[in-house]
Specification:
- By secondary structure, the chain is of the alpha+beta class.
- Helix 2 packs across helix 3.
- A 9-stranded antiparallel sheet has the order 1-2-3-14-10-17-8-7-4, with helices on one face.
- It has 2 domains: 39 residues, no CATH class; 209 residues, Jelly Rolls (Sandwich).
- It binds 2-oxoglutaric acid.
- 2-oxoglutaric acid binds next to strand 15 and strand 17.
Length: 284
Amino acid sequence: MQLLDKPWQNWINENFARGCAFEAMLADMLKAGISKDVALFNLNNRSDQALVIAEGGSNQQDGPYEQEASYLFQHDNTIVTLDGQQIQVAMRVTAPDVVLLDNFMTHEECDAFCELSKSTLVKSTVVDDATGASVGHEHRTSMGTYFTLGQNDLVKKIEARIAEVTGTPVPNGEGIQILNYVGGGEYRPHFDYFPDTIGGRVHTAKSGQRTITVIMYLNEVKAGGATVLPSINLSVYPKKGSALYFSYLNSKGQVDPSTLHGGAPVIQGEKWIATKWIRERIYM
Ligand SMILES: O=C(O)CCC(=O)C(=O)O
């Protein structure tokens, strides 16, 4: 992948240092005629390396990402799961592979997740590219907590539902993560797949790359708080019980940079979500 010339690298470093939003810089670079893949690669492989971009950067890979048929596209309008949940396909995008699912969880299940999490919330972290350690970062200002696999009946039920809908084995899933954003809380755009760095490889060594993200909305936010995918100008506003699915690893081992996504600042009210990340192999 092409590294941009020095003036562009300086422009990227200076704008990051000034606190410019990732998506605004990406938009400026696209306007200047730089291709999306090259822009994302350079934004995530900055020459000064002063800042960690959350949850991964772009992977060094040959050629553009080759989109493959989505497992979820086999369904038409409704998916009825084994536990009887009638899930509606509300929106699909083909590239990247993104599907919005309504009625993924009942309101009672959403409320129960929030209630069970309230007492164990701690400040959210990101993965340090250099070491793989979990570190706090100004780009991620939510509070969060994790459930272990199969921790209780509710977790078991939702894990089974996620596995059925995504066509993946339950043990490949990382523990469900609950996130709570209040007053201005956000998660700036990032990738969920791990970068091809020392820190990233610490995470992929055992269970492989992340392949799929499922973000489940546990409440409605008064203002702000959309999940944004800036590469395709998509904003998904939280609707209690709905879920956003996207996949980003193909059979050639390429990862899809157009799944860059983030949680926009919560302007009014608060936001609760549950996130599931799925791996290539059993999660250890
Ligand atoms: O808050 C959101 O809507 C996005 C969360 C997110 O990006 C993540 O959990 O990876």
